[in-house]
């Protein structure tokens, strides 16, 4: 058996709640960590059809002394919906789970978001643990307490802020991740690089140029840095009334792209990659960002094996209309995260329709 190794441990502190992010290797069968986080004799594991055959048995074996139930959802963004949420409620009620039960989210961002939302609403709130198995979930969606399901008219429109009891990141789970999924996660890593700038952006760019993979020596450090950046934003603005909205860099475009294709064409990170390029273009068109940064974003996405252009088949008017559902809208005004330079981003509510239209036109390519 491979040796259990803790790579990093961070803490997230928000009013009334503190929890650890533990990054390790070979830890899914490490009984001490998980069992200590389950205080009662009841636990329910929420996972999906892809992850369950890989890791469900390992988690259940650790929790052998508990009433350990499970819900196995269909895999995919299109299943992040009310039906999947109801399936979790049905199992909780059928197996008589009480208010001291613990929900474990075992999977990627979709599983984490749905399980977290179920935890926030079942009997007005029960504890939950995030065990993310995709890169995107490990560095972004598992940290910070955003939970949600999608609606046919918009992504993440029904949800809550509800912090987990812990986030347990086993880097070895990335070894079974399809390459496309791994590449998808790199988009969020690039986002953090652009938000932070400085040494982290330079180190990330170099790692991407070398060919960043799940067994790269730099990966644990880069994951920890992303989690640290996310934690700082969450601690300063838990409910996204201010600076935490900057974490949505590129996401106004990305969410509209996903919705425009009914969440069937892109993985989330692929849409984020295009969104980051569009955000850089928008900033350039507004006259606040140097063209060299736009070129840097394009180059980083190329290194990561991610798209950056809007395909020609996308209806740009439909895309613009879907942006009107964005959650950053305030006083009926659409706000974008824009960049003056890497490490200097802000929310802007003065983007003109002409500037936005020109950005979308410029971003269209043949991909």
Give an overview in words.
The protein has helices at 31-36, 52-62, 82-94, 109-121, 135-141, 179-196, 198-210, 219-236, 251-260, 268-285, 291-303, 316-323, 353-363; strands spanning 5-14, 17-25, 42-48, 67-73, 102-107, 128-132, 146-151, 154-161, 166-170, 310-311, 336-341, 344-348, 364-365. With 367 residues, the protein is an alpha/beta fold. It folds into 2 domains: 5-176, Rossmann fold (3-Layer(aba) Sandwich), CATH 3.40.50; 181-365, Up-down Bundle (Dehydroquinate synthase-like, alpha domain). The strands form 4 sheets. A 7-stranded mixed β-sheet has the order 1-2-9-6-5-3-4, sandwiched between helices. Helix 5 runs parallel beside helix 8, helix 9 packs across helix 10 (268-285) and helix 10 (268-285) packs across helix 13.
